[in-house]
Design goal:
Number of strands: 9
Structural class: mainly beta
Radius of gyration: 14 Å
Helix content: 10-25%
Oligomer: single chain
CATH architecture: Sandwich
Number of helices: 1
Number of domains: 1
Largest sheet: 6 strands, antiparallel
Distance between the termini: 21 Å
Strand order of the largest sheet: 1-3-4-9-6-7
Length: 127
């Protein structure tokens, strides 16, 4: 059970245990994620999901890139931003961002990452 594959699976469970995954719905529009998504059906496509109440927006980014978002299309809330490294299971707080209509983000490196926007003041980043 102590294999690299099991560690990655554990990191995946850790992520979804921390999020209200049952409330996430796929975001297939181009209203929030404006640019940098990649090509649908290809391995480089960035998948995203959001909650109906606009308190969470999550993006899986399969390879390093720059992406642009319209956060006003989610809600009028201020978001905390976190990187989640699926290889290590570590969250990194990036900062806060408002309802910007055009906001850019660059991945930390060329590997895969998750970008988590949250507007829930009670949400705690897991250890």
């Amino acid at each position: 059970m102590n294999t690299p594959g099991m560690e990655l699976a554990n990191n995946c469970f850790k992520l979804f245990d921390a999020l209200p995954w049952q409330n996430l719905i796929p975001d297939t529009s181009d209203q929030v994620l404006l640019n940098g998504r990649g090509t649908f059906g290809q391995l480089d496509f960035a998948c995203s999901a959001k909650t109906i109440d606009g308190s969470y927006y999550v993006v899986y980014i399969p390879s390093g890139r720059t992406m642009y978002f319209n956060l006003s299309a989610i809600s009028g809330k201020t978001f905390r931003m976190h990187w989640y490294n699926p290889r290590t299971g570590v969250f990194m707080f990036i900062g806060r961002v408002g309802k910007d209509p055009h906001f850019g983000v660059v991945t930390p490196d060329t590997d895969d990452w998750l970008l988590v926007f949250d507007a829930n003041p009670d949400w705690q980043i897991p250890d």
